[in-house]
Amino acid sequence: MTSAAHSAAIARLLTHPAIWRGGDCASEPASIASGFAELDAALPGGGWPRGALTELLVEREGIGEVRLTLPALVRLQAEGRSVVWIAPPHRPYAPALAAAGLDLARLIVIRGCSSAEALWAYEQALRAPECGAAFGWMQAHEDRALRRLQVAAREGRTWGVLWRRPGQRASATAAPLRLALSPQQTRLAVRVLKRRGAELAQPVLLDLARTPGAPLYPLPDGMPILQRTSTSPPPARQHRLRTSQRKAS
């Protein structure tokens, strides 16, 4: 074989989808577009990974972290799949979510449960075939539990997001994608901490102003979060948001 033919054969071999080179992003079996072309270019598979965990570390709340995920959630609901939020730290503002295009009939919020119950509910949501995305705000750090969540997301083909609030220890080694979110002037800086591919030296800067927002508003002072005391986790309280909800003061 001549040198030219040998080089051509190697080039053809390297185009095979099963081969990954260290300088490239690894291919993902399925992904969903984030709605931001510059972010999709940095994510393996060109979007948020279906069937895997994503860990999002937030420098401080209210910087557009929820708004970042809305275009993908709208796409998932358009496929007939539901969205589940487990133990969000504040009350979701239903009118803003509806204005962003979410179908509130397919949005389930589970709150008022213990940490063990939240973890149990999150795993069930990840495994449910009708669930397209499951967001969890619980403090899950134990390696075995995190591996179970990753397996559940893969088996359910669900986009699972573990939110890390300011000050929380973050060590979700089982999550194949980890991003850190921080404000940078009028934009959101997305720094890739871990992905299936080469390191990304510079953060991706996103202008969220072009996307309808849906912040999470704090609960009113004195409103208790119901806690369960049962040692065996029953199904947690579920709420479907209604557009008639008023903004929490």
Give helix % range: 25-40%
CATH class: Alpha Beta
List low-pLDDT spans. 17-21, 219-236, 242-249
CATH-assigned homologous superfamily:
P-loop containing nucleotide triphosphate hydrolases
What order do the helices and strands come in, and which of them pair?
Elements: H1 3-14, E1 31-32, H2 37-40, E2 48-49, E3 52-58, H3 65-78, E4 82-86, E5 91-92, H4 94-99, E6 107-110, H5 115-127, E7 131-136, H6 143-156, E8 159-164, E9 177-184, E10 187-194, E11 204-206, E12 216-217, E13 238-240
Parallel strand pairs: 3-8, 3-9, 4-6, 4-7, 7-8
Antiparallel strand pairs: 1-2, 5-12, 6-13, 9-10, 10-11
Helix pairs in contact: 5-6
Describe the protein.
With 249 residues, the chain is an alpha/beta fold. It has one domain (25-210): Rossmann fold. The protein is 25% helix and 23% strand. Helix 5 (115-127) runs parallel beside helix 6 (143-156).
Write a concise keyword list for the protein shown above.
249 residues, nine-stranded mixed sheet, two-stranded antiparallel ribbon, 13 strands, 25% helix
Short description:
The chain has helices at about 5-15, 35-40, 65-80, 95-100, 115-125, 145-155, and strands at about 30, 50, 50-60, 80-85, 90, 105-110, 130-135, 160-165, 175-185, 185-195, 205, 215, 240. The protein is α/β, with parallel strands linked by helices. About 35% of the residues are buried.
